[in-house]
C-alpha cells in the first residue's frame, strides 16, 4: 500500500519539496526505510530531468519547424534571435555574419538591444567572444566581458558593450555546408556563467538556425531566379510580339514602296503606326510632306539634329519652340536625301519603326529621283529641240511633247528665269516641284532656266476674265524658298516653229528687267510698259533717230569728255527726279550730283526736266539703257 502511494506520487511528477514532505511522513510512521526513500528521490530526479529534456526537445522541434517554414531571409534572421532569447531567457540575443573579404564578423540582427552602437559592432575574426565564436572553433563565453582579461578587446567594441550595459556573453558558431557563416550569441546585463545545458541548447538552436538560414537563402535565390526567368519570358514574348509587328510593318512598307503614290502612302502608314504628326523634310529644313501643322524645321536645332542623324544613321531627339521631336534622316551612301520627323517623345519600339521607315523613304526618294532624272533628261532634250527646230522627224517631236501636255496646235508661253548662278540648281529643283501637277517642261537651257507651258490665268487654274500669269507664280515659288528670281515671259504663240522667237522675246524681257534694275519681278513685253514698246523698235531707224534727237548732244559730250552725264540723267529720272535718291544710287555727294545736273541743263537745256520734254527724254533714256545692256534684235 505504501509503495503504491509512492509510485503514484512519482508518476504525477511531484516536486522535490513535496516529495520530501511525503517521505518524512512515511518514515516517521515507519512505513518507509531510508534506502527506499533515497531510491525514490533519485527516481524522481531522473523523471523530472527526462520531462525537462522532453519539453526542451519539443520546443526545439517547434523552433526548427517554424524556422524552416519561413522563406524570407530577413524574417528567418529575426525569428532566430527572438526564439533564442526566449529559450535561453537572456536579455539580448544577436546573430552575426562573416565578411571574409574584410576578415570581420558583423552583427546582422538583434533582439533586445537598445543602442545603435551595439547593433553595429564589427569584430575581427578571432577577437573577443564574437570574433572567437565566428571562427568556428568552439562555443565561447565570458561571465563579465569588460573585466575578462582572457579575452582580447577592441576599444570600439568595448564602448558599444559598455553603452548597452552588457556583462555576460555566450555564443556558438553557425555552420552551413561545411563553412562557418557567422555566430549566434546571447548576452545579459548581469555577470554570471552560462550552464552547460544553456550552451548545449544554444548549439542545437544554432544548428537549426544555420540550416533554416541556408534554406531561406536558397529559396530566395531560387525565387529570384524564377522571377528573372519569368521576366525574361515576358520580355521574350514582348520581343517576339514586337518582331511580329515589325515583320507586319515591313510587309506593309514594301507594299507602300511598290505603290504608285509611295510617299503619301508612307506618310499615312507612319502616322498610323506612330499615332503622331509625321513630316518629310528636305536637308535644308523645307517641309515637303506632312500630316499635321507645319512647324519651322529650318530652325538651327532641327537642322543640327538632322545632320547628326544623317552622320550616325540613328534617331536624334530635338526641341523647337518648347515641343519635342525626333528626326531620322534618310541617307544613300554619304548623301542626305531627306529626314523623317515625328512629333512627341516616342518609345523604343517606335524608334525601330522610324528607322525602318527611313530606309523605305530612302528607297522611295531614290526611285523618285531616278524617275525625275529620266523625265528631266527628256525635258532637257525636248526643250533644246523645240527652241532649235530641225526639219527631221517632227511627228516624233510632237509625240514626245505630248507626254508633257504640249501640242503644236495650242498656245504656248516661253518663260526665261534669271537667278544667281550659285542658286541655279536649287531653283531648278524648286521649279520641278512647282510644275509637277501642271502641263509643260522646265530645264536648263543656254545657262539659264527655261519654262515652256500653256498660258495659265493667275491663281493656277483657267478662268474666264482672269489676267494671264506672266510668271509671277514662279517668282513667288522661288521667293518662298529664299531664292530671288526675275522672270521674262513671251506672248502666247501657237506652233512649235514660233517657240524660238518666243524664247528670244522672253530673254529680251528678262534682260530689260535686269537693265531697268527691276530684279525680283516677272513681266512680259506688255507689262514692261514703254520699255516693252521700245524692245520692238530697237533695230529700227526710229530708235536711232529718237536717241539722236533727244540725247545726241549729251551722248556726244560723254563720248568726248569721258563723263557719265547720260547715266546721271537716267538715274535722276528713274528716281522720281529726287536728287537725294539719285546721289545715293550713284554713290556721289549731292553737290556733285547738282553740278552734273547743271551741266546737263547746259547741254540739253533746262526744260529736259519738265513737262512733255521730260517724258521724251525719259523714253529715250530707257531706250539707251536697253541698248547699253546689249538687248537688241528683232522680235517676232
Automatic annotation (TrEMBL):
SUPFAM superfamilies: GAF domain-like (SSF55781). It comes from the Bacteria. Pfam families: GAF_2, GGDEF_2, HTH_30. Residues 72-223 form the GAF domain. InterPro entries: CdaR-like_regulators, CdaR_GGDEF, GAF, GAF-like_dom_sf, PucR_C-HTH_dom, PucR_C-HTH_sf. PANTHER family: CARBOHYDRATE DIACID REGULATOR, DNA-BINDING TRANSCRIPTIONAL ACTIVATOR ADER. Belongs to the CdaR family. This is Putative transcriptional regulator. It comes from Arthrobacter globiformis (strain ATCC 8010 / DSM 20124 / JCM 1332 / NBRC 12137 / NCIMB 8907 / NRRL B-2979 / 168).
